[in-house]
Every structure is written in C-alpha cells, then in structure tokens.
Amino acid sequence: MVSPSNPITSTAFLLYLAFLLNLVSAHNFSELFHSNWAPDHLVDEGNQIKLTLDTASGCGFGSKRKYLFGKTSVQIKLVEGDSAGTVTAFYMSSDGPNHDELDFEFLGNLSGEPYLVQTNVYVNGTGNREQRHTLWFDPTMDFHSYSFLWNHYYVMFLVDGVPIRVFANKEEVSGVLYPKNQTMGIYGSLWNADDWATQGGMVKTNWSYAPFVTTFKSFQIDACEFSPENGTMIGKCSKVKQFRWDKSAMNGLSKHQSQQLGWVRANHLVYDYCEDTVRFPEPPKECLG
Ligand SMILES: *[C@@H]1O[C@H](CO)[C@@H](O)[C@H](O)[C@H]1NC(C)=O
Ligand SMILES: *[C@@H]1O[C@H](CO)[C@@H](O)[C@H](O)[C@H]1NC(C)=O
Ligand SMILES: *[C@@H]1O[C@H](CO)[C@@H](O)[C@H](O)[C@H]1NC(C)=O
Ligand SMILES: *[C@@H]1O[C@H](CO)[C@@H](O)[C@H](O)[C@H]1NC(C)=O
Ligand SMILES: *[C@@H]1O[C@H](CO)[C@@H](O)[C@H](O)[C@H]1NC(C)=O
Ligand SMILES: *[C@@H]1O[C@H](CO)[C@@H](O)[C@H](O)[C@H]1NC(C)=O
C-alpha cells in the first residue's frame, strides 16, 4: 500500500496520479490543433476557441497529428439565434483520394427551430450514409459533448455520452468496407452551406445576423497516434488491439447503451439513408440484418 509518510513512494504515487489525470484531462487547443482555414476568423481564448463566419469567410482547424482508433470528444456550443444556412462540423478524416471520414455536421436553423445533427461515414472514398437526428436539448444554450469511439468493432457517435449511431464492422461477413487502415486527423469548421443545409436549402443565411459564432472547448483525444517522423504508430500503439477501446467488453453495446440507442432512434431519428428507398431502391448492404 502507498504510505504517505514515505516521501519517495508518495512522490511516485503523485506522479502516477498526475499521469493518469493527464490521460483523461482535456487539452488546450494549441497543444493538439492548428487553424487550417482563415486563421483570422478563429479566436483561441485558451480554455475555448471561437469560430466565426461572416460574409468574408468561415474558418476551420485540424489536429497536428493523425490517429488510428480511439476516442475523441469535444464540447460545442452552437451558433445562437438565427443560424439558418450555417453548418458547424466536427469530423475525422484521412487524406488522399480513397479517404475514410466520420462526420458530425450541425445544420443551423431559424431562431426557435431545431438544429439537425447529420452524421456520415465514408470508407475508401464512398459516403452517402447520412443519418439526421434532432437533439433532446437546445445545443445553442450550453456546451454539450460530441464524441467518436472508433475501434475494430464499430464506430460509435455519442452525444453527451449517449450513442446516437453505430456503424458496425461487417467487413468479414458482408464485404462492406470498414475504416481500419488509414490514420485520420480531427477537424472542426464553421461555414456557409445555405444551398442545402436548412430545410433543404430553402432557407438562406441571413447575413444581417453575422458574425455567426460557434464555440469549441475541452478537446479530448484518447487515441493511437501516428508518427509522421518514422511512419509507425507511436510506442505501445503499434499493438492497438490491446487498448481499452478495443477490450472485449467493447465489442458490442452494453444493455444500457442498446436501450439508449433505441430511445434515440425512436424519438430523435428524422432521416436514415437505410430507409430511403428513393435514393437506394436496393438497401445498402450494411443496412441489412
Ligand atoms: C489552457 O489555457 C488556459 C488559459 O490560457 C490556462 O489557464 C490553462 O492552464 C491552460 N491549460 C493547459 C493544459 O495548458
Ligand atoms: C478502394 O477504392 C479504390 C478506387 O475506387 C479501389 O481501386 C480499391 O480496390 C478499393 N479498395 C478496396 C479494399 O476495395
Ligand atoms: C486501406 O484501405 C483502403 C480501403 O479499404 C484501400 O483502398 C487501401 O488499398 C488500403 N491500404 C492498405 C495499405 O492496405
Ligand atoms: C428546421 O426547422 C424546420 C421546421 O421546424 C424543420 O422541418 C427542419 O428539419 C429543421 N432543421 C433543418 C436543418 O432544416
Ligand atoms: C434578416 O433579418 C433581418 C433582421 O431581423 C430582417 O429584417 C430581414 O427580414 C431578414 N431577411 C430575410 C431574408 O429573412
Ligand atoms: C517513432 O517516432 C516517435 C516520435 O514521433 C517515437 O516516439 C517512436 O519511438 C518512434 N518509433 C520507432 C520505431 O522508431
């Protein structure tokens, strides 16, 4: 047992605690990210960043490193008031033509009308897997957390810890490709998408409300990091399957999570590409079973 009266042991213990806390604590923006579009529209306030959109530009940021599997979370407070036509995105993406990508896109709306959260999954360059959800809170009033849990078994999209979508790895049974061999960066942005975002593009951005502002904070990346210096995963991450997001308990949803996902689907799912027979007369393979 650790005895606080032993100065060497207690120092080691405190260092160990600090190490543990550091693993789960949120990081400042500049440690992990840099601005990658219109730096003059992104304000780093230390404990949070503000992305602004005006008639001149939107803006965005990206991670300095790339990752393969893990859990990534951020807290976001979306554009208040009339946000119609604006889209805030939080996503992961690999580079190159046959890219993999996981998206949260927050579609703005008129004052008092609900935001929609659109999620999508691209594998080897192919997306077209949109789902849209309403939220059970007003995402413009306060910060809420949005996360990706990405392991060998599934990609889970979570809102305040509640799973809203699971994209399972069915590669071996159905041949549907799963994102697993391309490292991804982590990105955020705010831009004008009034050609499609709000009520199918019918409602345009009202620039008299500009600048539009979205705030991000509490960045948490608990993921395997790729070293661009030597082209390998860093340290123990070369054996990613050992990591906590891949433990056997993580190969399916817990009973509680299944119930939560069922509740979300019943109450907040407003669009699912799997059920869109106009776009897909033959349901996509991953939608079966
Ligand atoms: C993040 O920035 C804030 C404000 O500048 C500072 O108080 C805090 O100590 C920083 N945290 C880390 C982990 O660097
Ligand atoms: C990924 O897409 C490219 C280009 O369409 C194709 O040539 C390649 O075979 C695909 N990869 C797999 C594993 O199917
Ligand atoms: C990685 O996967 C993609 C899509 O599955 C494929 O196109 C590509 O050839 C793979 N690359 C390697 C190095 O296995
Ligand atoms: C905006 O509000 C309208 C009316 O309530 C709703 O139909 C629509 O789904 C909402 N969201 C978007 C992004 O259009
Ligand atoms: C934009 O907002 C202003 C200020 O509320 C309002 O007067 C104007 O009618 C709005 N424009 C459109 C096209 O709705
Ligand atoms: C690769 O580089 C990283 C630093 O980016 C280092 O931590 C790691 O030990 C290196 N791995 C090998 C096999 O050299």
From TrEMBL:
Q: In the record, what terms sit under GO molecular function?
A: hydrolase activity, hydrolyzing O-glycosyl compounds; xyloglucan:xyloglucosyl transferase activity
**Gene Ontology biological process terms from the UniProt entry:** cell wall biogenesis; cell wall organization; xyloglucan metabolic process
Among SUPFAM superfamilies, the record links this protein to: Concanavalin A-like lectins/glucanases (SSF49899)
Per the UniProt record, the source organism is: Protea cynaroides
Protein name in the entry: Xyloglucan endotransglucosylase/hydrolase
UniProt keyword annotations, A-Z: Apoplast, Cell wall, Cell wall biogenesis/degradation, Disulfide bond, Glycoprotein, Glycosidase, Hydrolase, Secreted, Signal, Transferase
The record, for PROSITE patterns, names:
GH16_1, GH16_2
Localization, per the record, is: Secreted, Cell wall; Secreted, Extracellular space, Apoplast
Signal sequence, start to end: 1-26
Q: List the top taxonomic levels of the source.
A: Eukaryota, Viridiplantae, Streptophyta, Embryophyta, Tracheophyta
- What EC number(s) does its UniProt record assign? 2.4.1.207
Which residues are glycosylated according to the annotation?
A: 109
Grouped into one coarse class, the protein's main location is secreted
Q: Which CDD domains match?
A: GH16_XET (cd02176)
User: What does the record say about PTM?
Assistant: Contains at least one intrachain disulfide bond essential for its enzymatic activity.
- What cellular component terms from Gene Ontology apply here? apoplast
Q: Which family does it belong to?
A: Belongs to the glycosyl hydrolase 16 family.
Residue span(s) of domain GH16:
1-216
Identify the catalytic residues. Answer: 101, 105
What the protein does comes down to:
Catalyzes xyloglucan endohydrolysis (XEH) and/or endotransglycosylation (XET). Cleaves and religates xyloglucan polymers, an essential constituent of the primary cell wall, and thereby participates in cell wall construction of growing tissues.
- List the residue ranges forming a coiled coil, or say none: none
